[in-house]
Each structure stands twice: as C-alpha cells, then as structure tokens.
C-alpha cells in the first residue's frame, strides 16, 4: 500500500474516490462543501432526500458527479458534532470514520482513495501520529484472516493508494507517520498471522523458523534458536517441566536488533509462546479450549514487533526473547506437586500444571539478565483472571517500577491500544509460599492475575521490569474470532519514544 499527502486544493486531486464526512444533522464538513460547490450542490440536494443518515460507520458511495475530477465520492457518517465542534472530531470517531471509508473502498474496484475527513485537533493527534494511524488503520482494515479454507479465495481488493489532504507544513511529519504506521501494520499482520495459525501448524519449531526468516530479511537482526539440548544446558528447569509432556520439541528464540549508533543498554522484550495450552495434567475444560492456540500471542507480538523495529531500523538496541513449547498431558508430563529448579536456581512446586506461562517466562526473564538490559517487558496471555478484572478492553500492566508502568499506560493511550496499571505489592508474592519449595506456582483464585505477576516478580528483582497480561486483549472469541494484533501498537509507541529521546 502506498501512502501520500496532497497539499493542493482537494478538487484538483486526480483520484478514484474521495471520502468526505457528513454529520448526522446532514451538515457537510468543509471538505465536503468544497466538492459540493464544484458539482453544483448535487451533494446537498441528494442529502436533502434523507437517504443518508450520517451515523457513525455509515457510508454512501456516489458516482459520476459532474464537475469533479474524481469518479466517486464516498460520504462517511461522522455522527453528531459533539459538544465542542471547534476541537474537531474526537479520536475515536475519527478512527471509526477512517476505517469505514477504507472498508467501503475495498468493497469496490477503487484503486486510489483520498481521505478528506476532518481530523482530531493537533493536541489530540499530532501530524506524525495521524500519519501513523492512517497507515495502521489501513493495514488492520485490509487484513484478511489467514484461514486454511480450500475453496476459491475471495477476490482481493483493488485499493493500492491512500492519499490524505494536508498542509505543506504538516506533510513531512505525516509522511514520517506513514513509514512508522506501515512498519507497525506489517508487524501486526505478522503477529496476527502467527497467532491465528492452529497449534498443529504453528509449533515451537515453526516460530523458530519464522524468526530465522526475519534475520534473512533484515540486516540489523541476529537470530539464535535454542533446541532441547541447549535449553537443558541453560538449566531452564521450569521450561523443561512444561515441555516434557509434549512430542513437539521446544524452542528458545533470541532475536537481536543492534543499531551502530545506539549506545544504550537494550530493551528486552519477552513473549510467552505456548503454541497450545491444554492445561497439562490439570486439564482444561473442553469449551473454548481451541482458543488456547492463541496462547503464543505474546511470542507472536515479540516477533512482529522485532520485525517493525528492524524495518524502521530504530536507533536502539532491542532484544526479543521467546520461550516456546506446548503444554500437554502425557505419561511423562509434569504432575501437580512436582518440584523443579528454575534456571535462576529457585525451586518451584508446580501445584497446577495449567499455570505454565509463568514457568516458561521465569526462565526467559532470567535469560534476559545476560543482556544487562535497561528495561525488560514481557507479554503473555497469562491468566483468565485478568479477563475477569479488565474485560477485553485494557491490557493489564504490572511492574516493579511505577514510572515504567505509567509510561506504558501512557503509550497505550497515545496509540489507542489501552492498558491499565494493576497493583503489585509484596502481599501478593507472599501468597505463593510453599512448604516444600522456594515457592508454589499458584496462589488460589483471588487476585489471580496479580499473584501470577508476583511469581514473575520473584525473578526480576534486579531489573526494571514490566509485565503485560494480554489474555483479554490479544485475541477475540466468538464470530470475529482471531488475533487482534494487540499490544503491538502500544509497544511500538514505547520504542519510538525511546528512539526519539536517546
Ligand atoms: N493461557 C492461560 C490463561 C488464559 C485463560 C488465557 C483464558 C486466555 C484466556 C494460562 O496458562 C492459564 O491456564 N492460567 C490459569 C492459571 C490458574 C491455573 C492459576 C487460569 O487463568 O485459569
Ligand atoms: Mn495454562
Ligand atoms: Zn497458558
């Protein structure tokens, strides 16, 4: 997809289709008025008939209006003007309108689309973030699920070019945003594709190969994939305990992005890569168990984000770590009550084999220490409890550093990929006491997402560390079942900010 800015008068833009906004009271936006005048007020006359309500998400395609360079005009409903119309469209309404416009265009043979919708105010969405969001939303809207259906594929859309109207002053920042947004969209699509694949295709081996593929495509990346013998050599006893019931060999993936100008200690991203979570001997109930193919969403996010970082060649050092294996019941599987030794040396009594994410992550977090990182952030579909606490709208952020948690929450707001700061005080860690080992891997039902984070906290004492529980946000169930690509946008926002400030 190609993205461009147009700084000349709208009516002079040679394009297949122009999208302009209309409010639910029938009022045309300034851009729509320009077109209306050109076609001798045909737009207002058509609107007067009342066929188009201007509701959010509604679109109406008009063709062959005389006097315009564009063959088509797409009216996009904006809803009400809101309480302070001079502040422009709210960000949410703008995103909705933009997605509707792109989506409507893909249902036609339009190859080039101009977005001439009103924009949120600068302070709400800067030029750079505006450009990024346009490319990001295009990518997300054009994304088609990588299904394995055998029938004829639906005809692909024709859209190849998106143009936004801009001023000469804003053009450069918007274009910078386009580059960021395109990299983000590609990374997010990679994440979604990986997460959507079934467990029998997307195995730990498959994740390892995918990571190796990234290193071939990007000069800045170095990838190392550890197999079972190397994982044993690393004494990752907790990861080994989870994988021991599976026929699929585990992988521990290290992706390093080095930039010659970056002198700072790296950011290490860690992803949970359970390619299928049956629960193990503490077997899950059958309903929704299929969704546990998404239990590698954290890993997929790390791989997708590393791809974006490399594509933008961010002036940072970033390391991505993925611990990948299956959690299966088997004659050789780990049993409730078994005690294993983590790579760090702490012993863990595994009371519930379904609390496997924290086990593979604790060994990965320990591995992160060798990079002497500035910050470590892990992403994991860790607990059902976070879904109970926050639903599907906010990712849960836990950290041993309040400033870091606040920064991530802030990035989530800026990127429209929201997160919420959850508590993480000592009491929760104390609930993990075991009579037989340094700690147990579970602590009862109450505050389940927090005790899970507290477990990880025992392995990150000397790090600046944050944990994002994405069990509620990384994928959707139901009719629109599939990976959402979250929290790639939040994470890239965080990395872009770091790249801009150091
Ligand atoms: N992968 C699950 C968490 C999960 C649940 C993700 C629902 C997405 C939707 C994780 O491994 C798990 O099973 N957690 C247990 C922990 C419990 C045994 C303490 C849970 O949440 O039930
Ligand atoms: Mn589990
Ligand atoms: Zn799991």
End-to-end gap:
31 Å
Which compounds are bound in this model? ligand BES, manganese (II) ion, zinc ion
Mean pLDDT: 97
Secondary-structure-based class equals alpha/beta
- Tell me the number of helical segments per DSSP (H or I, 4 or more residues long): 15
Instruction: Summarize the main sheet.
Output: 8 strands, mixed
The proportion of strand residues reads 15-25%
Quick one: how many beta strands?
A: 19
Low-pLDDT parts are none
User: Taking Cα atoms only, what radius of gyration do you get, to the nearest Å?
Assistant: 25 Å
As laid out across the biggest beta sheet, the strand order is 7-8-10-9-13-17-14-15
* Helical proportion, percent range: 25-40%
Shape: elongated
Give a verbal description of the structure:
The chain has 502 residues and is an alpha/beta fold. 35% of the residues lie in helices and 20% in strands. The protein has helices at 30-38, 42-48, 91-106, 127-142, 171-196, 204-217, 228-233, 237-243, 297-311, 357-368, 384-390, 402-414, 426-430, 448-457, 488-501, and strands at residues 2-6, 17-23, 59-63, 72-79, 112-116, 161-165, 221-226, 251-257, 267-277, 318-327, 338-341, 347-350, 375-380, 395-399, 419-421, 439-440, 465-469, 475-476, 482-483. The strands form four sheets. An eight-stranded mixed beta sheet has the order 7-8-10-9-13-17-14-15, sandwiched between helices. A six-stranded mixed beta sheet has the order 1-6-5-2-4-3, covered by helices on one side. A hairpin with a 5-residue loop joins strand 18 (475-476) and strand 19 (482-483). Helix 4 packs parallel to helix 5 and helix 12 crosses helix 15. The radius of gyration is 25 Å and the shape is elongated. The model has no long low-confidence stretch (mean pLDDT 97). Manganese (II) ion binds next to loops.
